[in-house]
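Open question from group meeting: does this chain pack into something compact, or does most of it stay loose? Before anyone orders reagents, we agreed to write out a predicted structure and look at it together. Recording both the input and the output here so the notebook holds the full record.
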Amino acid sequence: MTYVLPSSAPLALVSQWTHTAVLSVLGFAALAGVVAMGAAFVTRWATGRALSTGVAIVAGSTVPASVLLVQAVVRGAFVEPAPLAGYASSSYLLGVFAGTLLATAGGRSVGDHLACAVFEVRRVEGDSIAAGLVRSAGVAVSLTLPNVISDLEGYRTVAEGTRRRLAGRRLIVPRGLSESALERRLRDRLEADFDVDRTVLEMGPHGSIESLAVGRLHPGRSPTVPPGMEAVAIDSDVPAAASDGDPLEVRDEDGHLVATGVLCGVDGPTATVLVEAGVTADLEDEHRYRLAIRAAAPDDGRELVRRIQRASETISTRTVEIGDDLEGEFVEWVPGTVLVIERDGDLHPFPAGREPIRAGDRIHAFGAPEELAAP
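Structure tokens returned:
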């Protein structure tokens, strides 16, 4: 009796598909790892900090995901002849993204270590053995930020995610710093590494941090626009010698004077100009204007406003209640510089230093945040 063996074609087909799928998975994983490695290298070089794992995974997975999407749309299959809706394609996708996940994690680590070696960046994690040895040798100390991060009065509120990152965070600083040097070091560190513009620290005994308040600067030019004026963006030829605060003449293409104003800023061919309220209606969007610097008496007001906007000082408002620490004190004893006192509905700008503070007064003071926070 003769037995006929079944054809081996299906086995060959499965073997061929599996071979192609495995090579594709490995190729996508290698591609994702290279992308993550490059992103980690560039991030360490540009910012001095390591690329987060989540960002590395997203960056590395973008290219494989894009290629798979194109294959699904154009060919209707990932690896032929397996259809899109099937166990084979599902297993293939699972393998691609699992390989991509592992490769991006490895590529991020390799890229970060390579950048540290090339640019001689020394990494010491706060909870690492090396950091513990440094602290045990007396070279550095570890400080813990408060669990509650306060808002800094007069500034924008910091994002909730940034506040969570700051709460309870441990920082390593050199041992032997004076209290003022320690505060300055901590402020510089927090403002450089986190999305904050101003910080106020209250130090406790033995160098501990009792409280921390953070804030961000207000963006835009609205705070610098005086009453009766408007800021308008003009498509124009800006004189090369023009700078912020210069008085300008706005003329049309025929040379006719349209408006006068003050230059606020320049971004390529667009200039931001302060003009009188109501003049903006005469400036048409589709027209291009010429700006000319006009002669005027020296005015340092714009420079003063620019410096105040960039300075660390701010304006704080406080209402004096009955029994308040400021009640009965002289103006010159108030922390910061008192600009205005609101009293019984009247405004008293720049009060004399010997003017006593009364209950019910509303005080507007100018100074550094830590100075205004003093009792």
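Observations to bring back to the group:
The chain has four domains: 10-119, 129-215, 222-305, 312-372.
The chain has a mean pLDDT of 78.
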